[in-house]
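Input record (one chain):
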Amino acid sequence: KDISGLAETVIADRKILTEEGLIIVAISIDTRNNVLLDEPVIYNKGTMSSTSSNLEKDLKNIVSSTIVATLNSKPNFAEIKNSIKNSVTSYMYSLTRRKPMVIPVIMSKN
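The corresponding structure, as predicted from the sequence alone:
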């Protein structure tokens, strides 16, 4: 442990990654028109098997509908990221009883 406590944070994050998994959701949005430019891309590690294409499709649909609903209220990036995290975490927990680390990546076209 170091003075700032960062070692404990790193260990806690690694524990989440090994026990719960990781999902990265990459989206492209047009910030001027508040629209989703393409379907979300889902990267995962430790959450889905290679044969669970239905789960990936479901996650893409959930994220897409969440983003479309969120973009209607002229949100900032933090609100978009939180809506992605909340919807993916809720869905994965209801399905697997696990809470993977969710990392939203937002690419914007101005």
